[in-house]
Amino acid sequence: MVYCVHGHEVSQQAAATLHSAGIDAGFLQGGIHAWQAQTLPLAVKAAGSSTRWVTRERPKVDRIACPWLVRRFVDAEASFLYVTPGQVASTAEREVATPFDVAPHLAETLFTHDGEQCSFDAFIRQYRLGGDPALSRLAEIVRAADTDRLAQTPQAAGLLALSLGMSRLMADDHDMLEAMMPMYDALYAWCQEAVTGQDEKHNWKPEGPAA
Questions:
Q1: How many domains is the chain built from?
Q2: Helix, strand or coil for residue 137?
Q3: Considering the domain boundaries, does residue 94 fall inside one?
Q4: What average pLDDT does the segment 177-188 reach?
Q5: Quick check: 108 and 34 in contact, CB under 8 A?
Q6: Is the pLDDT of residue 46 over 60?
Q7: Are 49 and 137 members of one domain?
Q8: For the chain, give me the number of helices (H) and strands (E)?
């Protein structure tokens, strides 16, 4: 049994090649996404292997936050491809990569916006990471920054400003991802303290004008 992301050309061609060599092979209808959507058992990733992901180019918030989450909580060796919107589906098939943060007309994926939730929420849900209060707090910040609801949490405006500024400085999407990784590490560290009420306060107030 062979499979690809959606059960389209890659797995079908592989099965046909095996058949031509006298090997009885089939392909997984709907690909690994259909299997995962049914919450069926998945094999543990083999040591030394890594996941591949693809999304739209010029990331700002969600398409940087999601790779950070994957590398920190799912697969430290994961690789990410940033391509033009029209190349997402074909790249996913060719590179056996999972699309994320894309509209349904670009590619089928479980890792994208759903109602008021953003792709970062989808990753937390799919990988069952919701039990981490600090990660849930970070999700609130990412969601507010990514969906223009900055009033929901004070930190969202800062994250958005930092993301937009870094995008302006970085012409290469992968350079931006690497530059933002420690930024999200720092924000997650703050969230860990904030959810326990141990976040450091800076409340110095300047004195009034001298008499």
A1: 2
A2: helix
A3: yes
A4: 97
A5: no
A6: no
A7: yes
A8: 8, 3
Amino acid found at 83? V
Q: What is the pLDDT of residue 31?
A: 73
What single DSSP character describes residue 27? B
pLDDT digits (tens, 9 = 90+) for 100-154: 999 999 999 999 999 999 999 999 999 999 999 999 999 999 999 999 999 999 9
Which strand (E) or helix (H) includes residue 191?
helix 173-194
Q: What gap in Å lies between CA 109 and CA 96, rounded to an integer?
A: 13
Is 8 inside a domain boundary? yes
Cβ partners under 8 Å of residue 110, min gap 6: 33, 36, 37, 122, 126
Question: Which structural domain, as residue segments, surrounds residue 21?
Answer: 1-43
At residue 150, the pLDDT reads 96
- 66 lies in a domain? yes
Q: Are residues 82 and 11 in the same domain?
A: no
Q: 95: burial class by Cβ within 10 Å (0-12, 13-18, 19+)?
A: middle
**55 neighbors 103 (Cβ within 8 angstroms):** no
Contact 143, 149 (CB under 8 A): yes
Asked whether residue 20 falls in the same domain as residue 51, the answer is no
For residue 19, name the pLDDT band (cuts at 50, 70, 90): confident
Residues 9 and 52 in one domain: no
The answer on 55 and 20 residing in a single domain is no
Cα dihedral sign, 33-34-35-36? positive
171 and 141 part of one domain: yes
